[in-house]
Each structure stands twice: as structure tokens, then as C-alpha cells.
Amino acid sequence: MLTDNLGIFMEKGGTIAFLLAKKEIVVVDSQFPDQSKHLIDELKKKSENPFTLLINTHHHSDHTAGYISFKGIVEHVLAHENSLKNQKEVAIKNKSEDKQLYPDKTFSDTWDEKFGKEKICLYYYGAGHTNGDALIHFQHANIVHMGDLVFNRRHPFVDRGAGANMKSWMEVLDKAVNKFDTNTQYIFGHAGTGYEVTGKADDLKKFGDYLGNVLKFVDGEIKAGKTKEEILKNKIIPGGEEWKTDGIERPLTAAYEELTAK
Ligand SMILES: [Zn+2]
Ligand SMILES: [Zn+2]
After folding, report:
1. 11 C-alpha to center of ligand 1: Å?
2. Could you say which of 48, 115, 141, 159 has the lowest number of CB atoms within 10 Å?
3. In Å, what is the CA distance from 209 to each residue of 15, 130, 202?
4. Which residues surround the ion ligand 1 when the cut-off is CB under 5 Å?
5. Cα(223) to centroid of ligand 1, in Å?
6. Distance from Cα 223 to the centre of ligand 2, integer Å
7. End-to-end Cα separation, the chain, in angstroms
């Protein structure tokens, strides 16, 4: 629990947040079907209230595959309009539409609703990790679920196929730091080994700096005449020494493609 009625759940996949409101339960993200079943069991022990809303930070399956376990249990599912589009596209491609519980509500720029003493506000600040990442602010608790807009000291997946953009991602993080305050606590989709899935504005700034350092580094390599293959051999980014977990080829590839796109 992060407060008396707001907590996080982690097993496998993107970090889940849940709100035990006075009359209902709200859940953000769902990991995979088994993980969601475990979550539902755990939350039923804590509260007898109904699940009224599932909010999705974005469409990736480590956040949405578990929705199916909420079928017939939850009243509504809410996501950014691009997230729904992306989820449908991927499911059709993978022939897994029968395993989806799609959002029945979407928003474009902002959305808010009161849940007892808590007010949940959603914001969309443009392309980042995908083109459909929602920031979810629990105003009373002053906690923001950033979804996969923050990989805390872990190399991120940059889903260019779903409209991701690293330069715009940096702006999204800046907007978040300016919107919320120094006491705001953040929840992150993923973290590197030894790092937390919660943090402060400073972690957002560090991740933004890291994205900038990746772009700067790859730009310099391209200008020095290096090939994509040569660039992908690098294991560490100058200024990004805290990002040590595997997967560096993902942001390097994305940066290369973004910088050489016509
Ligand atoms: Zn994720
Ligand atoms: Zn993701």
C-alpha cells in the first residue's frame, strides 16, 4: 500500500495500481490473465466493493492481457483512444481478439471523475512510449501512474510501430514534471534490477535526460559515419551509466530510425 487506500501489485508485467474507494474498486492495468486472477483474489480479501473501473495506461499486452479476467466483473474499461486502436490492431494481427476485453470508454485529452474522496484525472501529452500513453493522477493521494512512460533505470521498449517518438517522449516527461509538484509520488511501469517502480520527479528528469543522451549519442555516431550495426554494438550510453540492464539495442535502434527517418 502507498496510502491507506491506494496500492500497487506486481507479479509479472507492468506495475498495477488499485484504489479501494469507499463504494468501489478502481484498477489501473492488469498484467496477464493469471496475474489478474491473483490480483482479484487479493483485492476481494481487502474489500467487498464492486470493481467499477479498469483504466489502461496503454495497449501493450503486459498491461492489457489480464483484462479478460475482469470480464463480467468490472463495469467499465477506460483508455486513451489511440490505445484502443492499437490494442485492436495488435489483436487482429495476432488473431487474439477473443482474448481481449476492450475499453468501452475512451478519452482524447483529459478525463476526470470522483471516487469518494479521491479524484482521478487522466492526461494525454502526446507520443512517447506509444502514441496512446495516459498519465493517471490520483489527485487526493497525489500519486501519478506513468505506465511505460518511465522505465526506471531500465532500457525502454520504444514502440515506433505504435507511434512512439523519443523526442516527443522527452517533452511528455517535461510536461509531467511541470504539471505535478515536488511532493507527487510516481508509479512506473518497469524498473531495472535493484530499482523501485515508484519514485519522484527527479526520476522522471533522469529518464528524460537518458532519452536525450541516447538521441545525442546516436546522432553523433551517425554523423561520424557509423553504420546501424556498429552503433548497436555499444553497451553503455555516455550519461546513461545507471541504465545497465539488457535491451540497449531497443532504444539505440529506435533512435537510429527516428534520426534517419525522412
Ligand atoms: Zn510494459
Ligand atoms: Zn509498454
Report:
1. 12
2. 48
3. 23, 19, 10
4. 14, 62, 148, 189
5. 32
6. 30
7. 47
Q: How confident is the model at residue 244 (pLDDT cuts 50, 70, 90)?
A: confident
Which grid coordinates belong to 253?
Answer: 535502434
- What integer pLDDT is reported at residue 66 of this predicted model? 97
Average pLDDT (13-26) is 97
CA of 260 to the centre of ligand 1 (A): 26
Q: Rg of the chain's alpha carbons, rounded to an integer?
A: 18
CA of 159 to the centre of ligand 2 (A): 8
Query: Does residue 245 have a pLDDT over 90?
Result: no
Mean pLDDT of 102-112: 98
pLDDT of residue 67: 96
How remote is the CA of residue 224 from the centroid of ligand 1, in Å? 34
Residue 158 grid coordinates:
520504444
CA 135 to chain centre: 8
* pLDDT tier for residue 230 given thresholds of 50, 70 and 90: very high
Among the bound ligands, name the one nearest to the CA of residue 133.
Answer: 2
Give distance in angstroms: CA of 123 to centre of ligand 2: 17
> pTM for the complete prediction?
0.97
pLDDT at 180 over 90: yes
Q: How far apart are the CA of 135 and the centre of ligand 2, in A?
A: 13
Q: Are 58 and 130 a contacting pair, CB within 8 Å?
A: yes
Residue with cell 509531467: 176
